[in-house]
Input
Amino acid sequence: MKNYDENNIFNKILRNEIECEKIQENQDNLSFNDINKQAPVHVLTIPKNKYANFNSFAENASDKEICSFFRSVLEVAEKMKIKDSGFRIIINCGPDSNQEVPHLHAHVLGGKNLGSILG
Ligand code: 5GP
Output
């Protein structure tokens, strides 16, 4: 994929070069605990295909991939028992969002009342 940094940390996780605490996995996506939790539940869901950010994903991914990605987030919420108590999905994209890792990821946060959206 154009403009994709092969050496980003999440691609290393996908290549099994770096360990992660896996929460959920299927053919299209992998979900694992964030190394620096911002809430009792803080899971990252990433597609296995190489998309640097949300723009690239929304522009280039198939309908199946996009659907599968959000279904994986739902599975994470179910597995972490936050589906009914509530949760927040954050996708940072680009410089103003301070996106650190250039491989699309959704933060799935919950397990307590998360307060206002920008904290
Ligand atoms: P961003 O700012 O790009 O939206 O979020 C990147 C997230 O990746 C941060 O919350 C950070 O804690 C997490 N992270 C960075 N490096 C690693 C790592 O090696 N393993 C895991 N599990 N999470 C990481």
